[in-house]
Specification:
Elements (H helix, E strand, L loop, with lengths): L7 H11 L7 H4 L3 H20 L6 H21 L5 H15 L10 H4 L9 H18 L15 H14 L7 H20 L3 H21 L4 H24 L10 H17 L1 H7 L1
Helix pairs in contact: 1-4, 3-4, 8-10, 9-10, 11-12, 12-13
Enzyme class: hydrolase
Keywords: Hydrolase
GO molecular function: nucleoside triphosphate diphosphatase activity
């Protein structure tokens, strides 16, 4: 006989028991809205990490950890008489139905459950409709700026990309990539100017402007800046570990080697990656 396959109701019951003041877990009982937020962000990053590593066998567990965060918040709300998990599901489903009239023209799931195929729709029209619906939603929430509801807790690179994307929707953007490149050169020049003048604090501020300009270039190229930097981080780590291993083979540490020697091992790591790219992916 196969083991019981737990379902959503089991998960919601488990959370209710964990939060029970009498029989629950002391750690879970003392948690609140704010204390769980850092865990939510961490779990989201762990999902992203598993996907980047193509660790699909780890994904059920990581996605479960992320889902558990939603269950947590829903439980807080239920205890306070605000809403419950099924209200979350209902709100999400209703929103997605409203945002996809080209797929659900009747605004319900009934026709799709009956196997009616969706009509082919030109991609640009779909995207335009989606953005219009989101704009309507923001207006309904009394939004006063196109930048409203961009989460402040996002990583800085991701938030910069979202802020600039919002501004670009209303025409506040460069006409092409060359304009962004010119801005990057301008900001880099301001960093150099501040350094030449001995204005260290000013240079630090200008670095922020330089980063924001680079994020805009990534956005214009269709690259996610957070993902791009994670990829570069992994590449740097992979190559530097090669440098460490190469030096260790001679019984030395990096601080015992010259920069020229470390650079030589670094270039060797780059050549190996170019000749065996599959190894680079597997090691990330």
């Amino acid at each position: 006989m196969s083991a019981h396959r737990h379902d959503l109701d089991d998960l919601l019951t488990l959370m209710a028991v964990l939060r029970d003041p009498v029989q629950g877990c002391p750690w879970d009982v003392k948690q609140d809205w704010d204390s769980i937020v850092p865990h939510t962000l961490e779990e989201a990053y762990e999902v992203a990490d598993a996907i980047e590593r193509r660790a699909y066998d780890e994904l059920p567990g990581e996605l479960g950890d992320l889902l558990f965060q939603v269950v947590y918040y829903s439980r807080f709300a239920e205890e306070e008489g605000r809403f419950d998990f099924y209200d979350v599901v209902d709100a999400l489903t209703a929103k997605m139905l409203a945002r996809h009239p080209h797929v659900f023209p009747e605004g319900t799931l009934a026709s799709r459950r009956e196997g009616v195929s969706a009509a082919e729709v030109e991609t640009r029209q779909v995207k335009s409709r989606w953005e219009a619906l989101k704009a309507d939603e923001r207006r309904e929430r009394d939004a006063v700026s196109v930048l409203d509801d961009v989460p402040r807790t996002l990583p800085a690179l991701s938030r910069a990309a979202k802020l600039s994307k919002r501004a670009a929707r209303v025409g506040f953007d460069w006409p092409d990539e060359q304009g962004v490149l010119a801005k990057i050169r301008e900001e880099l020049g301001e960093v150099e100017g501040a350094l030449d003048a001995g204005e260290t604090e000013e240079a630090r501020a200008e670095v922020g402007d330089l980063l924001f300009a680079v994020v805009n270039l990534a956005r214009r190229l269709g690259a996610d800046p957070e993902q791009a930097l994670r990829t570069t981080n992994a590449k740097f780590e992979r190559r530097f570990r090669h440098v460490e291993r190469a030096l260790a083979a001679d019984g030395r540490q990096p601080d015992e080697a010259s920069l020229a020697e470390m650079d030589r091992h670094w270039e060797e790591a780059k050549r190996r990656e170019h000749h065996h790219p599959e190894e680079s992916h597997n090691n990330e």
